Amino acid sequence: MIDANPKAEPTGNAEKNPDDWTTGDEPMTGAQASYLKTLSEEAGETFDDGLSKADASKRIDALQEQTGRGK
Q1: 5-55: per-residue pLDDT in tens?
Q2: What span, in angstroms and rounded, lies between the C-alpha atoms of 15 and 32?
Q3: Whole-model pTM?
């Protein structure tokens, strides 16, 4: 049996649904909080510092769409 080289397909699991993350219920990371705060300010939206990793990721995606930063 030949093991697949994970570096051969570096984006193979890059697009995983945040609802499926095993650590999705943990508090958002510092990097997520920083970027989310910036996006919230640009969009004129309230920044929620109590989001989980998964919820922060979803909020970032939504605010990127709203502000045009995700393109």
Answers
A1: 655 655 555 678 888 888 878 999 999 999 999 999 999 999 999 999 999
A2: 17
A3: 0.74
Q: What is the DSSP annotation of 21-70?
A: -TTTTSBPPHHHHHHHHHHHHHHT----TT-BHHHHHHHHHHHHHHHTTT
Q: Are 18 and 24 in contact (CB under 8 A)?
A: yes
Pick the closest to residue 28 from 8, 44, 51 (CA basis): 51
Residues 41, 47 contacting (CB under 8 angstroms) = yes
In terms of phi and psi (left: phi > 0; alpha: psi -120 to 50; beta: otherwise), the region of 47 is beta
What is d(CA 17, CA 2) in angstroms, rounded to the nearest whole number?
A: 28
